[in-house]
Structures are given as C-alpha cells and as structure tokens.
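User: two proteins, same treatment. go.

Assistant:
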Amino acid sequence: MTLLNPIEVVPATEVGPVHFIAVGGSGMSGVAHLYAELGIPTSGSDRSDSSTLQALRRVGVTCHVGHDAAQLGDARTVVISSAIREDNVELAEARRRGLRVWHRSAALAALMMGKQGVAVAGTHGKTTTTAMTAVMLSEAGADPSYVIGGPLSTTGVSAAVGEGEAFVVEADESDGSFMQYPTRIAVITNIEADHLVNWGTPEAYAAGFHTFATQPEVAWVVINVDDEGSRTLADQLAAEGRRVVRYGEAEDADVRISDVRPSGNGVTAILTARDAAGPITLQVPGNHNLANASAAYAVGRILGLDHDAAVEALGRFEGTLRRFQLITDTAGIRVYDDYAHHPTEIRAALSAARRATEAGNEATGLPGRLIACFQPHLYSRTVDFADEFGEVMTLADIAVINDVCGAREDPIPGVTGELVVDAARRHGAKDVVYVVDKYDLPAALNEIARPGDLIITLGCGDVTIVGPLLAPLLAERPEAQPR
C-alpha cells in the first residue's frame, strides 16, 4: 500500500448507483450507510456475513456475501479501501468497465461538500474524540452529520446525516487519506510514529500532519499540547500565523484540564477556557478521555456552543464500542474489550484498567489482578513496536499474548506474537503466557482468572471475539451459580 493523493470529487448525489467492496469494514460501513440514507442506490460485498451487513440491509444497502463481478450490477461508482487488492474480481471488473473507482475517503469527501468539515486526526484517540464531538453537537441541538470509526455504545450507529452545518469525520492518517477531506476545523490528538510501512520515516509521518493542518480550507487547528509530537506542530503552526487552539493539562493550553479525579466509572476535572471555567464530569474513565473531551469542547465553542451547553452535552457521552467496553461481569470477573493496538494506546487502556481493578478490590475486598490479553495487529507494526509492546505489557499482572493478526498484510518470516512475549520477559514481566490460536484464548483465560480479576482484551483485529466466547465459560463456574 502506498500513500494516497487527494483527487477532485463531485457531490455524492451525482455518483450513484454506488457499490462498496468490503462494505462490512469499520470505515466503509458508515459511509455506505450515509449513501443509502440519502436515497442513493447502494450495494456492497464482504467475504462473510456479519451484524454490520445485517444493519446495512436494514437501511437499504444491498449486501452480498462473497465477491463476484456480477455483483457490481449497474453501479457507476465503486468504493474501495486501501486493503482491497487489484486482483479482487469486483475491482478488476470495475477497472475493465471504466467505472469511477474511489477510495473510501473520496466517497466521504463527496458527502461533506457544502458542510463545515471537522476532521479528527491523530495517532491515537481519533474514534473517541470524533464520537464525543458528534454526541456533544447532537445533544446540544446542532444536528451534525458524522462518520465515526466505531459505533456509539448507546445507539450502535457510527454514521448519520444531520440537518446542521457541521460534518464530523474520523480522519485516517495511515494511508494519507486525511488529506482528502474538505476540512475547516482540523483536530490533532497526538503525533507518534506509526504506519511506517507507508510513510517510511517518523519525520515523514509527522510532516504529513503539517500538510493536513495547512490545507487551504482549514481555518482552525485544535491540537493537543500534552503530546510532544503535536506540541511541536502547534508551535510551528502558531509561528506560521495559523489559528491554533491548544488543549490539554499543560499550563499554556487554551482549553485546560486540571484537578483530575475518578468519579464512579468515569472521571471529573476542572475545564478552563479563556472565557469560562468549571467542572466537567465524564461517564468514561481516564485522563486520555478528558483530553479527548477538551478537544471536542474546543470544536463546539468554535462552532458556536456556549460553555455550559458543551460541558453538559459531553457529560452525556457513554462511549463507543470496543473502547473500554464491558463485555461481562460474571463469577466476580470483569471482562472488558478495547481497540488499543499501539503501545501508547495500550498504556492508556491498561492505566484505566488498573484504576478499575483497584476500585474493584476496594469494593469487594478481593485481591483482584489485571490480566491483559493482547493480539498484535499487522506484521509490520509488530516488527516496528515489538519492544514497546513488551514493555507496556509489564503494566498488567498477567499478560496473555496471541499470535499476530495479519489483516491486509502478507506474513513476514519470523514475525509472530513470540516477539512480544520475548520483549515482555526482557522488560521484567513475571507472568507471560503465549496462546497461538485466538480460539484457545477463552479457555486459557478461564483457567487463569479468579474472582476479583479484571480481564481486558486488546487489539484492533479479531481478538474482539474472545470476550463473548469467554462469558459463557465464566457463567458455568460455581461462583456464578445461584445460591
């Protein structure tokens, strides 16, 4: 895969009928949903059926299981992601027929035309920050359009068409597609080297964010100054005369978080802006979520929300699926699932999980342990970050490591989950278990866990199946039986 260059697009109303290849993906499904919601004939295909395809069918998307050239039907536009290979039979047929072939980002950019684009980029925190911004604007009555990389936990929906002026999108930097969007407000949550198989060097990756933030349409840049990479960019943009809103816990932040304290399953703090200050309480835990909320708050103020409306609306956010999502609390064992797949994301997730473990210990009097079940994602990322993955696994009492989920990549000889196991042991992790087959993870975790423990599955691959498969095993334990 190589970096994408922005292309000229036409309004979404002019592109149909439209067909999405791999329509069940987290990025593709939301865009397909919006095309169907606008009344544009929409179809799609994926290698297997799923709850996502079933949901798309309910909004009018014709979904096929498996790939076949005939499934293009009368499509005029075919939408792909960077994971789709040129030998895919549907893509090959679209090329043969001379159809318009767009990357997902172009299809989304076409939807955004004529709206106030809010694009949320960054190495970590994009999905939650996008979701917080969308929920805040919705709860405050601004009725935004949005496309999020994961469904909201309250609605199970990741995309919607609104009547308001704002269109909020999660902007993916991995393949450079964040350059495609007509962005008025650019949000940058942090910059820490990733996706080097595409970008080549950390310097090139960081430079990509500067290009993103300085596109002609961008009027405001909302940027985290607690992170070294994004702070460096903030200083550079300010020196260039750009309008920058800094957020974070740093003393020079324009939107500043301070006096952070746990609050039930969430967190509370003081939020200070240039013209207002007061408490903010979230229903989701962790300093990282307060940072995400302060970014969303800054966007809301730029778009005209007052302080009280923005803070109150953010307090109603209940999270997105696969972001510290509780799967089950059975037999005295809590199981969470989290999308974290980069060392910094994993550190934040495990830090929140540690606080939850300690809170559980205080409530129950049991000496509960934190058990991290991690599935590395992509062979290239495992090579780049094996040592960092190993180091962050020491934050758990027990680390259970799965083999690599290769996803769109071909295997690299010698690159397996054992690289992370070895690194964890080098860094002093005392209890590390390697389980090659993901389907063996539920039984392994059931054998390890005891009442009071907190288990968190980590990764952006199919490790998400583990919690639901573990839940019935926990339900069979004597501790779970009625007395």
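Protein 2:
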Amino acid sequence: TDTECGCGRRGCVEAVSSGRAIMGAAKNKLAGYSTKYIFELARQGYKEAEFLTERSASTIAELIVSLKLLLDCQVVVVGGSVGLADGYVQKVSKHLSIYSEICNVMLFPAYFRSDSGLIGATLWDRYCIT
C-alpha cells in the first residue's frame, strides 16, 4: 500500500504491519481500539479486524519472501507485540504457503518473547563487537 510511514517514506512494512499501523487503519466500530483488542475481535470472526490482521500478516510474508530471495535465509524469527500475538505466526505461514517452494523458510515466534531484542543486543555486545 502507499500508507505513509513514520520515517517519511510510503508503503514501508512498519506502516502496514505494526501495532500502531493496525490501530491507525481501524475505522468505523474499531476506531480507537487497541491492537490487542483488534486481534481478539479477529479471532472472534469480526470481518474488519480479520482484514487488518490478515493484511499485516500478508505484508510480513511478502517481506520474508524478499529476504529469502535476497539473503537465502533458512529460518525467520518473528517477534514484537504483533508478531507474538496469538495465532500471528500461523497467519504469516498461511500467506507464505502461496509462494513457490523456493521461498520456504522455517518460521518461529521469538523464543524469549518480548525480551528477545534485549537478550540479542546483550549477546551481540558480548560476543560480536571487538
């Protein structure tokens, strides 16, 4: 899409798939609700909420396909508040399944959940920075 991102560009993954983007795109009866609540409504079958969460997952799947083709990654770990939402990794996997087998990757939620970034940065500092 051509949604404006906080970085000033248009159509960034962040502008479509992040929690803030999902909340910002919520209209009508969903306007003003939290992303967490929108995900809950999607699980209950509310069509607008399903659209927003599926659009997010589809965009992440497209990003993963691009990364696979560019970097030949074999595994992708999904984190963040949206990425760790119940059922989100399965939604992304469903969208990945429409692509060619060459785009297949193993997809996992972040093992350390919301602490993954902090732990990764600590380990990076400890073992990778010289």
